[in-house]
Protein backbone atom coordinates (compact mmCIF):
# COMPACT_ATOMS: atom_id res chain seq x y z
CA UNK A 1 0.00 0.00 0.00
CA UNK A 2 2.88 2.38 0.72
CA UNK A 3 4.21 1.83 -2.79
CA UNK A 4 0.83 2.78 -4.19
CA UNK A 5 0.79 5.94 -2.05
CA UNK A 6 4.22 6.94 -3.33
CA UNK A 7 3.26 6.26 -6.94
CA UNK A 8 0.05 8.27 -6.61
CA UNK A 9 2.07 11.05 -4.96
CA UNK A 10 4.15 11.26 -8.10
CA UNK A 11 0.97 11.28 -10.19
CA UNK A 12 -0.46 14.18 -8.15
CA UNK A 13 2.78 16.16 -8.43
CA UNK A 14 2.71 15.82 -12.22
CA UNK A 15 -1.04 16.37 -12.51
CA UNK A 16 -0.98 19.77 -10.75
CA UNK A 17 1.16 21.66 -13.30
CA UNK A 18 -0.41 19.80 -16.22
CA UNK A 19 -3.91 20.89 -15.27
CA UNK A 20 -2.85 24.51 -14.80
CA UNK A 21 -1.06 24.47 -18.16
CA UNK A 22 -4.14 22.98 -19.81
CA UNK A 23 -6.43 25.57 -18.21
CA UNK A 24 -4.13 28.43 -19.21
CA UNK A 25 -3.97 27.20 -22.83
CA UNK A 26 -7.75 26.87 -22.90
CA UNK A 27 -8.13 30.39 -21.50
CA UNK A 28 -5.86 31.88 -24.16
CA UNK A 29 -7.67 29.92 -26.87
CA UNK A 30 -11.17 30.93 -25.73
CA UNK A 31 -10.27 34.60 -25.28
CA UNK A 32 -8.72 34.60 -28.75
CA UNK A 33 -11.97 33.31 -30.28
CA UNK A 34 -14.06 36.29 -29.12
CA UNK A 35 -14.96 38.98 -31.64
CA UNK A 36 -16.34 41.98 -29.78
CA UNK A 37 -14.83 43.97 -26.92
CA UNK A 38 -17.71 43.26 -24.52
CA UNK A 39 -17.57 39.57 -25.29
CA UNK A 40 -13.80 39.58 -24.81
CA UNK A 41 -14.09 41.39 -21.46
CA UNK A 42 -16.63 38.86 -20.19
CA UNK A 43 -14.53 35.94 -21.36
CA UNK A 44 -11.37 37.34 -19.76
CA UNK A 45 -13.24 37.85 -16.49
CA UNK A 46 -14.65 34.32 -16.55
CA UNK A 47 -11.29 32.72 -17.21
CA UNK A 48 -9.55 34.91 -14.62
CA UNK A 49 -12.01 33.64 -12.01
CA UNK A 50 -11.54 30.03 -13.12
CA UNK A 51 -7.75 30.31 -12.98
CA UNK A 52 -7.90 32.13 -9.63
CA UNK A 53 -9.98 29.31 -8.13
CA UNK A 54 -8.04 26.39 -9.57
CA UNK A 55 -4.51 27.69 -8.89
CA UNK A 56 -4.66 26.99 -5.12
CA UNK A 57 -6.30 23.63 -5.80
CA UNK A 58 -3.46 22.73 -8.14
CA UNK A 59 -0.84 23.87 -5.64
CA UNK A 60 -2.50 21.85 -2.89
CA UNK A 61 -2.51 18.81 -5.15
CA UNK A 62 1.22 19.19 -5.73
CA UNK A 63 1.94 19.65 -2.00
CA UNK A 64 -0.18 16.60 -1.15
CA UNK A 65 1.68 14.59 -3.80
CA UNK A 66 5.04 15.75 -2.47
CA UNK A 67 4.23 14.59 1.04
CA UNK A 68 2.91 11.27 -0.27
CA UNK A 69 6.07 10.81 -2.34
CA UNK A 70 8.28 11.55 0.68
CA UNK A 71 6.42 8.92 2.75
CA UNK A 72 4.69 11.19 5.24
CA UNK A 73 1.52 9.09 4.97
CA UNK A 74 3.21 5.70 5.41
CA UNK A 75 2.04 5.36 9.01
CA UNK A 76 -1.22 7.02 9.87
CA UNK A 77 -2.23 7.36 13.56
CA UNK A 78 -4.86 4.91 14.71
CA UNK A 79 -5.82 6.79 17.87
CA UNK A 80 -5.65 10.31 19.20
CA UNK A 81 -2.88 9.27 21.61
CA UNK A 82 -0.49 8.71 18.70
CA UNK A 83 -0.81 12.30 17.59
UniProtKB/TrEMBL annotation:
Keywords: Membrane, Transmembrane, Transmembrane helix. The chain crosses the membrane at residues 7-27, 47-69. InterPro entries: DUF6814. The keyword Transmembrane applies. It comes from the Bacteria. Pfam families: DUF6814 (PF20664). This is DUF6814 family protein. It comes from Pedobacter vanadiisoli.
Amino acid sequence: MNTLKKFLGLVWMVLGPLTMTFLFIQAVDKVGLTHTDIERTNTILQWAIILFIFLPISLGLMIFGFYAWKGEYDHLPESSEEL
